[in-house]
Amino acid sequence: MTSATARPQLSRKVRLRFDRRTGRYMLLYPETGLELNRTATEIACLCTGECTIDDIAQHLARIYVDLSTAEIKRNVHDFLNTLAGRGLLQGLQ
Amino acid sequence: MNHEYRPYTLIAEITYRCPLRCPYCSNPIDYARHGAEIDTDTWLRVFHEAEALGVVQLNLTGGEPLLRDDLELFIEKASKLELYTNLITSGIPLTFERLSRFRALGLNSVQLSIQGTRPPESDRIAGAPSFHRKLEAMHWVKSLELPLTMNVVLHRDNIADIADFIKLAEDFSTDRIELANVQYLGWALQNRSALLPTREQLERARTVAEHARGRLQGKMEVVFVTPDYYSVYPKSCMDGWGRRFIVVNPEGFALPCHLAQTIPGLHFENVRQCHLEEIWHHSSSFNQFRGDGWLPDPCRTCDRRARDFGGCRCQAFHVTGNAGATDPACSLSPDHGRIESARRQASHLAGLPVLFEYRSGRGFTQT
Lengths: 93, 367
Ligand code: SF4
Ligand code: SF4
Known about the structure:
The complex is a heterodimer. By secondary structure, chain A is of the alpha+beta class. Chain A has one domain (9-88): Coenzyme PQQ synthesis protein D (PqqD) (Arc Repressor Mutant, subunit A), CATH 1.10.10.
């Protein structure tokens, strides 16, 4: 499970790439990739090993002013857990 | 732009040459009769055209891609194009220095195949002494902190060792292990009776793999690919014909699947003469099995058609003689009896010593 002070970082095998065709970012890793929506991109860009999960949630709260803090936290945790489940993230305890 | 047909991955088969002789090799069985390999500049142009067409992943494969001495240039170019570049190799012949160079030039990941968990078995299947060198190569990949996939092709003779393969992958802290059952096409079809496992073997292996997947989740990805001879429905071959992948073979032919040229009557364009974009959108062969129009019965009205697209065209051709038929691996196919009889044969042969026909440079047609 994720703790608010963990500092998630994309695994070495993952590359973030802008896709000119869709105007979205993708996470690429061996054999496949994930197309990210805007929120997911915001989160992925902050998975550098420097920001805590709380920092990420706060950053999103400044962008998505109409979402509640609880909703934002849930979004962040869900997305990070998805990435971790696929082995795309390190630094989550 | 129509995203229904966008190639995400270019499979660059840069050579058919290989120091090994696996009996399930996916290269065409008459590979030795194929023409000259396309040159460095043509490949560099192809990578460029592929990226412009939407490709984001590049698989450098073969044969054995290490046998091309311009591999460095390919990796460098791919990295400039921001392609995610996977080297798919047997690990032979490789040196630590060369691998370090690949990494510095931007290689993203390495997939290394091993044939068995112990030297004699592994070397017997590979047809050449290679086991220790493969372990050494895996060690180099890890020490350079490159992501490593260990690829194991499973068949009747090694499927019982699946737990040992997983253990080996754990010992090397690989990021991923791919336990893929042989696809019965090309050389593997010639050797089918020696390779096809029994249902019991397969179920046992699946259970072991599923266990490991749970235990290793988030640490090491465990991928288990069933042979479709034992599934109820076929796999969506290449995610659908001409939908997500382009293969360019060593001679420069652009193909929807690496064995597509074994289907008679299809004409394929060559990247020496044609732009990749032109081929992708307008090649009659790429268009032949796209969409719903060509689908035979029972696929035409089947709910699964959007998922498996009627299965593999090459398998349809090689088993039924008709590339436009429902994949015979599907239990709804009128030709499914042929697959069932191969399964029966596998259970008769269980436990007998296995004879392989090795991939050889001659090609069957010239003997
Ligand atoms: S399957 Fe074996 S013989 Fe064929 S290209 Fe791969 S390593 Fe070489
Ligand atoms: S009938 Fe055709 S579409 Fe339906 S499952 Fe079988 S192969 Fe797939």
